[in-house]
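Training component of the fellowship. As part of building independent skills, the fellow (R.M.) carried out the full modelling exercise for a liganded target. The chosen ligand was zinc ion. The inputs are recorded below so that the supervisory panel can assess the work.
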Amino acid sequence: MREPLSIYVLVDALGWELVRGRPFLDDVLIDKRWLVTILGYSSGAIPSLLSGRYPNQHGHWNLFYRSPGASPFRWTRPLGRLPRPLVENPVSRRVVKHLARRLSGYTGYFSIYDYPVAHLPQFDLTEKRDIYQPGGLDCPSIFDGFRDAGVRWECYNYHSHTDAEILALAPRRAAETDARVLFLYLSGLDNYLHFHVHEPHGVAAQLNWYEAGLRRVWEAARRERDDVRMFVFSDHGMTPVRWTYDLGRDVESLDLRIGADYLPAYDSTMARFWVWNDRARRRLLDLLGDHPCGTLLERAELQRLGVWFDDDRYYQLLFLMRPGVLLCPSHMGSIRFAGMHGYHPSEPTADAVLLASTPVDRAVDHITHVHDLIREDLGIIPKRTDATAERLPAREVAA
Ligand SMILES: [Zn+2]
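Fellow's submitted model of the complex:
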């Protein structure tokens, strides 16, 4: 008899809203429920899935954080004094990115998006290493857990393969491998939904494709073994975009100087600010404290959401857009996306999912719970009994 095989599949942006009303391997994945996500993007949510901790515990939140002393873009500082068109063009930006990546030695996801070159020396990148390997985070992740418990695993992700390649390769690996775990990270659905979330037929075709691919993985594993378990989970959902808003234009009208008075970071759903004097702070608070497009989040709420950082590295002021309002143009680009994530976790379309081939403890309802679920499945920690589960709020949903 062969050893059991657990197949863990992280499908980026597979939201509860997408699967709640349709089958998705329902004959195999019998337990189907939503998971509340964190405030932030995949750069914060996936480390939360992999470590079972919140961003202010594992340290990964947005892709950029302020750290002028350690910035891998320090050497670009003189470029900020050149005329804008010389620096802010696709060719020089590509050179800056390429050189910064080489000089920094970072091996994680490396992009400068549309962050102005003149601002880059203020920032460092959060993801310095490949987070799908042991040692990828500054705290233990599930991959450290595999290694420490002597669990053999194989992991396939965008670093080496496309989704099509992973889904072509995985059935064979599921049949042949002697590993205890097959971990697949599929990132293509996220990209599709950013452009097409408003198109129900296209979305259904995508989901059918992933469903069929995962069914082949499951069936290949089952032909070789009796004990196969599959857990499909996601990091966040996708909120349809209804409006775009150029928040930077409002801020620029305040007559404050970037660098001398404040520093902005405009992400797709939030604006982050560092402020260097009272005048700048007062003007920003006046504008953002009563703005129809979103909310200036207060410290208590940011602490509750697990994204308050005592050292200000991610922000001093955080303005969050209302769900469905895209901050555009932003430092993430000027594309008017059809869908976006990174709104408040209470927004229903932000919910992630957990689909499992075995019944799951009733208390699992947040992406940070997946880490212990995997460790329970592998016997690294004992399975939680119903008695301990009942003390936690249950949000199980019938499929
Ligand atoms: Zn995305």
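The panel noted the following from the submitted structure. Residues 13, 190, 194, 341 surround zinc ion (CB under 6 Å). Confidence is low (pLDDT under 50) at residues 389-399.
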